[in-house]
User: Fold this.
Amino acid sequence: GAAVLGVPVKPTIKEVGEDGRVVRTLNRSLLWEVQTPQCIRPGLLKEGFDLVARENLEVTDDVSIIEAMGLPVKVTPGSYSNLKITTPDDLIAAEQFLDLEA
Assistant:
């Protein structure tokens, strides 16, 4: 299996259809935002990458590969201050957070 850090989501999450209408509201108490690091034995991850390539799977992170293999992924509580930097807005938020910490 694998292990990953995560935090419970705070916002309300809606599933939205292609027409822009709300399909349903997801149960926030069951949802976690996963973070890094994501811990997976290298050999297992290689097997997973082979599976993704062979079956043309769409995955969003490394532990999604382990899920696709049918193996367990353990979530360990992380911290809301463990920010993911993906977009320019994320970088601005991280800089502001670091300024507060200084």
Q: What stands out?
A: The longest strand covers residues 32-39.
